[in-house]
């Protein structure tokens, strides 16, 4: 009986591997040391604060420099809340001289032509701007280009030349927030833009 009790009492002692206690103590010591090393010094904290401030400053100034004006933004939001004129043309709520139409694309003469040959090629799916195009729209955009090619061919301007334009947001003058491809030709169109800009990096 005494030997059995003695074996039971000694059993927990036998299950503990030798030097286990010191190892655990050493592990805790290393962990504590690592924890102290992770605490940033005052100089490191100041550097982090300066970096965060710089990032916030750059973000705010870039918005001021390149953001849309408040008037344009409000007008854009108002128009996006409504049905676009092109959707109304698709639904025959507005008249238009339609040059081409299929299940995904419609092409028609704009209200005010800017060249003898001027068509708008429009996807029936409303995409507000070219900045809103996704990878899933690649095929649709490609088909718009093919429609433009065929209309140019039909109107006899394939050899003389034509221009394809997407306008996007304020600086381009986009006023209808439903992407549309301008096809222009039938005359010499001149430069893409007015020649008032001087490139500071231009070399003769």
Task: Give short descriptive properties of this protein.
five-stranded antiparallel β-sheet; alpha+beta; 204 residues; 7 helices; globular; HIT family, subunit A
What does this 3D model show about the protein?
The protein is α+β, with helices and mostly antiparallel strands. The protein has two domains: 2-66, no CATH class; 83-185, HIT-like (HIT family, subunit A), CATH 3.30.428.10. It has helices spanning 2-15, 20-38, 42-66, 70-80, 85-90, 138-154, 169-172; strands spanning 98-101, 105-108, 117-123, 162-165, 181-185. A hairpin with an 8-residue loop joins β2 and β3. It is globular and about 70 Å long. The N and C termini lie far apart (108 Å).
Q: What is the makeup of the main sheet? A: 5 strands, antiparallel
Give the strand line-up of the largest sheet: 1-2-3-5-4
Q: How many whole angstroms does the radius of gyration measure?
A: 35 Å
Structural class: alpha+beta
The string of secondary-structure elements, in order, is HHHHHEEEHEHE
Q: What is the class of the largest domain in the CATH system?
A: Alpha Beta
Shape: globular
Q: Please tell me the overall pLDDT.
A: 79
